[in-house]
Amino acid sequence: MEQESQLTRLGLFDARVPRYTSYPTAPHFKPTVGAADFTRWVQEIPAGAAISLYMHVPFCRRLCWFCACRTQGTQSDAPVRAYADVLLQELELLKARLAPGVRLSRLHWGGGTPTLMPPDMMRRVAGAVFDAFPLAEGAEFSVEIDPNEIDEARMDALAEAGLTRASIGVQDFDPEIQKTIGREQSFEITAQAIRMIRDRGIQSLNTDILYGLPHQTPQKIADSIQKLMALSPDRIALYGYAHVPWMAKRQVMIPDDTLPDAQARLRLFEVARDLLVADGYDEIGIDHFARPGDGLAVAQRAGLLRRNFQGYTDDLAQALVGMGASSISRFPQGYAQNAPATGAYTKAIREGRFSTTRGHVFTDEDKWRARMIEALMCDFRISADEFIRDHGFTQAALAALFAPVKAEFGDMVQLDDSGLSIPEPGRPLTRMIARRFDGYEMEAKGHSPAI
């Protein structure tokens, strides 16, 4: 109760804070970055480099009410096939501008529902990608799989294409919750999809589950977590549901009065976390859990855990190239986002040009702020040695930077000559503490960032 009282006093239960999968976050991107910048940044990737490639498929058979992703519904394959043709055209544009020998450290198909693609289309897209860019040693090919939109033929196509990691969204197994969020997906159909994955020798499995959903109680989330653990995923993302109906219009279908309050959300998270840790999962950052042998757990122990638009990652590639409508790329020079609307994206690619409509060019300050935020999100610690070595800080400059954060959060942060860290009781505040290093967010709210 004392910890909850402190968290309340510090504003945890009233805060709306970015998830910090990028810095600056996407709302701060500007239209001053366009296709010419994207092209130049692609051309500056060194020959032989390993890059990550994300391909976005924005179509779904049904639009889940809880989802805030940019998606569109379709009951036929025709728009999906037409879109895949455009993706392949974009791939050719990219291939023509990349230096020789570029390889893939990661390939991820996300959405939407990538498994809407028929088997022949999956083979065609995967074949074109690997013809253009071979996989680097130890590379991963992952796909988001909807258990309601997968069958033996499509699973065969993914396995033959070289799938190494499958990702399945669970959200919650409770029927009342599923009905309220517009996502009916039984335990049995989820288990069946996982059996198809395992039967083809694909051992790496991610699953997503949400807390803070309508009608969710500690008993209900405990039951869902126990069912999920029975399926033996090696990586679990435990995300907080973000109810933002003013941004994601379909969320108006979810009655506000069915949602747990902020204190109840924290208890739901703690119930789920305690069950996962008791079952042997390592806690990774603020919202992931992994078996000790999983790549995220290994990276965390080695101090190599990173954060990108897919959440936590062990991928150390310097460039992540996003393909498809609304995709975001990250280069050492900055961020570039494709046109969000499928029509605008398609028009640009068919005219032989990239569809970048906005982004951000990094300043030197952006780079050190981004790394500080990432370090807090991944390791709950900003190392003084790292920032003295890599960013030219002095011990005195760091002390001045950290002092207002310590003054605001008190015992929820620890401060000494080795740097600033967040002890266990303060970790629910990690995003709020990270925000104090976010120059754009604090300026937008009329506050001075830590500097």
UniProtKB/TrEMBL annotation:
All residue ranges annotated as the Radical SAM core domain in the record: 45-282
GO molecular function: 4 iron, 4 sulfur cluster binding; coproporphyrinogen dehydrogenase activity; coproporphyrinogen oxidase activity; metal ion binding
Keyword Zinc tagged: no
Alphabetical list of CDD domains matching this protein: Radical_SAM
One GO term (biological process): protoporphyrinogen IX biosynthetic process
Record-listed S-adenosyl-L-methionine 2 binding positions: 66-68, 112-113, 171, 183, 208, 242
Gene Ontology cellular component annotations, sorted alphabetically: cytoplasm
Chain sites annotated for binding [4Fe-4S] cluster: 60, 64, 67
The protein's assembly and partners: Monomer.
Protein name: Coproporphyrinogen-III oxidase
